[in-house]
């Protein structure tokens, strides 16, 4: 059940930290849901060896490490935040992880590979709640299947020229012009944007938030 909406005041009263500077995640949490989360981007380098993880394990561990870094940094005075949220999103094509493109050539290559095919968008989320001693962790992953229409070389070139692909996993944004390439989706739309809103609301531990509310 989604219980968060029935007690939004308790959620907003809690000291919630988003360990991400992603404009899309900030928009979902603070503009769509109006949670008033404080944005503290993580300094975790995201240098995990992909060969040691499945795609689902990879995004979960990235999200966890991002949240742990921020939680530790903000807890040095003995007053940890009520909740730190970490997240990581990747595109997976035939078991291969596609992250943000390093350059325009990489963006062209990714879009060419996605053209006319189905792929998976995975977001790992880590929820770290204040506890006595170590934080209480809840880490999960949400997956959405996305179908791309065939893309011509000219269309890919024009899209890359807009600059939109350059800060997005898989080199496209479903909430932007890249959404025009999507001809089917199975699962959570917000997950493809960068944060699985429904799953977050289901997983949120209201009891733990109330225990550490600022109200």
From TrEMBL:
Keywords: Hydrolase. SUPFAM superfamilies: ITPase-like. It comes from the Eukaryota. One of its GO terms (molecular function) is nucleoside triphosphate diphosphatase activity. Its cofactor is a divalent metal cation. The keyword Transmembrane does not apply. This is Septum formation protein Maf. It comes from Coccolithus braarudii.
């Amino acid at each position: 059940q989604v219980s968060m909406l029935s007690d939004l005041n308790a959620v907003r009263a809690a000291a919630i930290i988003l360990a991400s500077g992603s404009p899309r995640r900030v928009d979902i949490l603070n503009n769509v849901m109006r949670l008033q989360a404080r944005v503290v981007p993580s300094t975790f380098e995201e240098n995990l060896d992909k060969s040691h993880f499945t795609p689902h394990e990879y995004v979960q561990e990235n999200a966890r490490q991002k949240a742990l870094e921020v939680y530790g940094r903000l807890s040095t005075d003995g007053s940890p935040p009520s909740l730190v949220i970490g997240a990581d999103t990747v595109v997976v094509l035939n078991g291969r992880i596609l992250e943000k493109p390093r350059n325009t050539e990489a963006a062209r290559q990714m879009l060419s590979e996605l053209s006319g095919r189905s792929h998976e968008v995975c977001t790992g989320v880590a929820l770290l709640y204040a506890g006595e001693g170590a934080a209480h962790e809840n880490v999960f992953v949400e997956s959405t299947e996305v179908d791309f229409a065939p893309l011509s070389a000219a269309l890919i070139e024009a899209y890359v020229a807009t600059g939109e692909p350059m800060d997005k996993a898989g080199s496209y944004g479903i909430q932007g012009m890249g959404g025009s390439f999507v001809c089917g989706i199975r699962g959570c739309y917000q997950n493809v944007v960068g944060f699985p809103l429904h799953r977050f609301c289901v997983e949120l531990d209201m009891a733990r938030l109330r225990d550490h509310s600022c109200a």
